[in-house]
Each structure stands twice: as structure tokens, then as C-alpha cells.
Write a structure and sequence with these properties.
single chain; alpha+beta; four-stranded antiparallel sheet; three-stranded antiparallel sheet; 26% strand
């Protein structure tokens, strides 16, 4: 009789064991699917960040070119130093496309924006790779999307009443830069990163 009872206990335990094992396997596969999606999302965001930064850096180079051309020729050249003049952004799309491609993604568009009063660029991307097969139907064809905004922020302070026709002293986060419009060569300008920072907008 004891043997018969033990046999019944085993018979009752086996379905519970199979049921619990199935639940654990499903949970594991579901967790893996979410991890796949999170990985794709992180990859997309990294690509968007890189593309936005590339666009803003290209625009910063344009600002430097225009600043150099304006010094000594345009009485409003100081406006380029405080962000009042917006770059055209002719090369921003190409720069963003390149960085998106390097991150295995495709650029969906670049938009000139303003954040906290500073000119910036928003890059929208879509990954070339998919989330991958999982227990969630349709993920094998899903691609992650993301966007990011990078801004160009002036780093230099100067006397707002400065005469643009006379030498001007710039304090660029502690680094002093002197510009003399009457005796200026574009090579006299420091690196673009001294005059302007490029960073992702919050």
C-alpha cells in the first residue's frame, strides 16, 4: 500500500514539475527577448548620439570659417562668438550619415533646432539590423529607432561694448584669446573647441 501511495505522489508531482519548468523557460526566453530589444535600442541611441554630434561639429567648423571671414570685414563679427548667427549647415547631413553608417544605422533626417538658446541639430536614425528572432512575434523584422540633439555652445566671454574694429580680448573658459581685426590672419584663430563646445542636449 505504501508503494502505491508513493507512486501516486510521483504522478502528481510530475505535471507540476513540467508546468514550473515551462514557466521558467518562457520567462527566460521573454527576458532574452527584452534584452535583445534593449540592446538594439542602446545601439540605436549610440548611433543617433554620434550622428547628432557629427552634424553639430560640422556646423561648428562652418561657424569658424564664417567667423574668420567676418573678422576685419564685418562690424558684426562678434555675433558669431555669442551664438547669434546660425550656421547654414550645408555639410551636416553628410557628416551625420557617415557616423550613422559607422554605427550600422541609416540616417532618417537631420533637423536644425534650438535648445536653451543655442543652435543645434537633431539626428533621427534607424538601425540596419533587426531585434532578431524571439518568442515575441514580429521582432525578426523590427528595427530600432532613436533621435538625439547636439548643440553648439559658445565658450568665450568678452566686453559687450567692445569696438569690433579694435583688438578684442576673449576669455574662453579661462583661456585668453586676443583678436586684432586690423592685423588678422585666419590661422590666428585657435582650435574650434576653444571657442565653441559641442555636446548632447539634455
Amino acid at each position: 500500500m505504501t508503494t502505491h501511495l508513493l507512486s501516486d505522489d510521483r504522478g502528481q508531482t510530475l505535471p507540476i514539475y513540467i508546468w514550473l519548468t515551462g514557466i521558467l523557460l518562457f520567462a527566460a526566453f521573454a527576458f532574452f527577448a527584452f534584452a535583445q530589444a534593449a540592446s538594439a535600442r542602446n545601439g540605436a541611441q549610440s548611433a543617433a548620439d554620434a550622428a547628432a554630434l557629427a552634424a553639430a561639429q560640422d556646423a561648428r567648423d562652418e561657424v569658424m570659417d564664417r567667423l574668420g571671414a567676418a573678422i576685419g570685414q564685418d562690424d558684426n563679427w562678434l555675433d558669431w562668438l555669442d551664438g547669434k548667427q546660425n550656421p547654414v549647415g550645408a555639410g551636416t547631413t553628410a557628416a551625420a550619415q557617415q557616423l550613422a553608417a559607422e554605427n550600422d544605422s541609416s540616417l532618417q533626417g537631420v533637423l536644425q533646432v534650438t535648445r536653451n538658446g543655442f543652435p543645434g541639430y537633431q539626428a533621427d536614425i534607424q538601425t540596419n539590423y533587426t531585434v532578431g528572432d524571439s518568442i515575441i512575434p514580429g521582432t525578426e523584422g523590427m528595427r530600432a529607432k532613436a533621435h538625439a540633439v547636439a548643440v553648439i555652445q559658445p565658450r568665450c566671454d568678452f566686453d559687450l561694448d567692445a569696438d569690433p574694429a579694435k583688438p578684442v580680448e576673449l576669455d574662453c573658459d579661462g583661456e585668453i584669446v586676443n583678436i586684432d581685426p586690423g592685423d588678422f590672419n585666419q590661422d590666428d584663430l585657435p582650435d574650434a573647441s576653444v571657442l565653441f563646445s559641442v555636446h548632447l542636449a539634455e
